[in-house]
């Protein structure tokens, strides 16, 4: 007889069929199936030959360089990270941005996904005095991967974006500062920039205003820079990176083309760095070392910065341009708007008045071997849009094989046209 297991409240929260689980399941199956699929879901970065050649060259160097390989695979690092990597990235950020930072401002985690899980639960939930604090997302739609990370049931507050329509078929989200206030029940603010799912990059002015508000309220501002400068620098808008003591800047090695090495990085005050290191010790003892050893010298000598600016960014900018062109052609006779593409790997398409939910559109597209992500998942927290906007959007990834992206977009055009007619 199979025993029925009872899960705790936290266990139930972590085992519900979350959006991120569906997304990663779809992604994993698409990457292993032999069936031809149009993979426009998921967030896997592209295989860019110049990047893969560099990782291969570094691995060969590591293997042939004395005992470097054995040191990499046969030792635990400290819970904060690999010493050479911490020094290398701190020195680089100090030189590049003139920030007063050192290794004490850097913590490594097993992917930046883990860093956000730790930070949300360090900064929200029940406080020692019994009051509940929340994470405030100043602009939703926001990254699906945050949606189920807060363990307390009232962990999240959010503010729906203000929509600026541009021309006949474009739009851009802005932070609705009129609706944004930081009450005493807020433990931190969080925004991804560039934003997954929309490709939005909130403006420098918006960042400065958020930063000033967070500082005045005495709470941290988390800026998730997984797609931003200095690497992978998948940024098409002319914007700047900002950091101060109360900002926790998240970075990742995933989108430069190393998602499997599971390396996330935060730049923060020493107090936050020590807290994240303490959680690392409890959750996983220490981090995976591979990505840190591969990239430490590439960060120090500027190779990663150059690769990002000269190869990775132009690659995605061109992919984005083509995908938008294909979408404009495929959707010519239906109502649609595409969010301005300012960075990251995604296009966010809004179908005003879509006759079914985007979840139903997702199912119909999946039937035709075309995977996208339904927009519903990206609207979480307390804030809700007036009308149906949150059921009228889908996210497309343009990082995978060009022919399948083009074919997927053609099928999306057909399905959406059928629905409107
Ligand atoms: C905005 C954003 N933040 C964080 C992550 C997590 O990335 P990783 O854990 O691979 O560093 C992702 C992954 O897609 C993302 O899109």
Report on this model:
The structure is a single chain. The protein is an alpha/beta fold. It folds into two domains: 158 residues, Aspartate Aminotransferase, domain 1; 229 residues, Aspartate Aminotransferase, domain 2, CATH 3.40.640. The protein is 40% helix and 17% strand. The protein has twelve helices and 16 strands. The strands form three sheets. Strands 2, 3, 4, 5, 8, 9, 10 and 11 form an eight-stranded mixed sheet that branches. A hairpin with a 6-residue loop joins strand 12 and strand 13. Helix 10 runs parallel beside helix 12. The N and C termini lie far apart (53 Å). Pyridoxal-5'-phosphate binds next to helix 6.
Q: What is the makeup of the main sheet?
A: 8 strands, mixed
Architecture of the largest domain, according to CATH?
A: 3-Layer(aba) Sandwich
Tell me the number of strands. 16
Average pLDDT over all residues: 95
CATH class of the largest domain: Alpha Beta
Number of domains: 2
Principal-axes shape call: globular
Rg to the nearest angstrom?
21 Å
Bound molecules: pyridoxal-5'-phosphate
Regions with little confidence, pLDDT below 50 for 5+ residues:
none
Q: What fold name goes in the CATH topology slot of the largest domain?
A: Aspartate Aminotransferase, domain 2
Number of helices: 12
Q: Strand pairing plus helix content: what structural class?
A: alpha/beta
The rounded distance between the terminal residues' Cα atoms is: 53 Å
Oligomer: single chain
Q: What is the N-to-C order of secondary-structure elements (H for helix, E for strand)?
A: HHEHHHEHEEEEEEHEEEHHHEEHEEEH
The helix content is 25-40%
Relative strand content: 15-25%
The fourth-level CATH homologous superfamily of the largest domain is Type I PLP-dependent aspartate aminotransferase-like (Major domain)
């Amino acid at each position: 007889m199979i025993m029925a297991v009872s899960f705790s409240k936290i266990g139930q929260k972590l085992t519900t069929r979350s959006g991120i689980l569906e997304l990663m399941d779809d992604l994993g199956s698409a990457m292993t199936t032999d069936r031809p699929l149009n993979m426009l879901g998921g967030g896997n970065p592209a295989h860019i030959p110049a990047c893969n050649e560099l990782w291969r060259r570094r691995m060969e160097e590591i293997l042939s360089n004395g005992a470097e390989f054995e040191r990499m695979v046969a030792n635990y690092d400290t819970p904060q990270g690999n010493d050479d990597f911490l020094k290398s990235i701190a020195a680089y950020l100090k030189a590049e941005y003139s920030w007063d930072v050192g290794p004490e401002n850097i913590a490594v985690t097993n992917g930046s996904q883990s860093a956000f899980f730790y930070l949300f639960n360090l900064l929200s939930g029940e406080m020692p005095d019994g009051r509940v604090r929340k994470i405030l997302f100043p602009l939703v739609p926001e990254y699906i991967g945050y949606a189920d990370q807060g363990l307390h049931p009232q962990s999240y507050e959010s503010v729906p974006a203000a929509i600026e329509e541009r021309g006949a078929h474009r739009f851009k989200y802005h932070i609705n500062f009129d609706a944004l206030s930081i009450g005493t029940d807020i433990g931190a603010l969080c925004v991804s920039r560039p934003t997954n799912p929309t490709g939005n990059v909130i403006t420098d002015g918006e960042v400065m205003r958020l930063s000033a508000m967070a500082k005045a309220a005495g709470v941290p501002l988390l800026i998730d820079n997984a797609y931003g400068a200095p690497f992978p620098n998948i940024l098409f808008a002319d914007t700047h990176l900002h950091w101060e003591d109360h900002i926790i800047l998240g970075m990742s090695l995933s989108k430069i083309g190393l998602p499997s090495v599971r390396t996330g990085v935060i730049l923060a005050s020493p107090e936050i760095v020590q807290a994240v290191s303490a959680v690392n010790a409890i959750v996983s003892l220490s981090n995976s070392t591979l990505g840190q050893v591969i990239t430490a010298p590439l960060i120090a000598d500027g190779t990663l910065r150059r690769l990002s600016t000269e190869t990775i960014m132009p690659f995605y900018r061109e992919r984005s341009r083509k995908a938008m062109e294909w979408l404009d052609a495929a959707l010519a006779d239906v109502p649609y708007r595409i969010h301005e593409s300012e960075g990251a790997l995604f296009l966010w398409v809004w179908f005003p008045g879509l006759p079914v939910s985007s979840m139903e559109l997702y199912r119909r597209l999946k039937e035709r071997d075309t995977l996208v992500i339904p927009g519903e998942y990206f609207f979480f927290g307390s804030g809700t849009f007036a009308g149906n906007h949150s059921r009228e959007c889908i996210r497309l990834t343009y990082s995978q094989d060009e022919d399948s992206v083009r074919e997927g977009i053609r099928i999306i055009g057909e399905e959406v046209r059928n629905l409107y007619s």
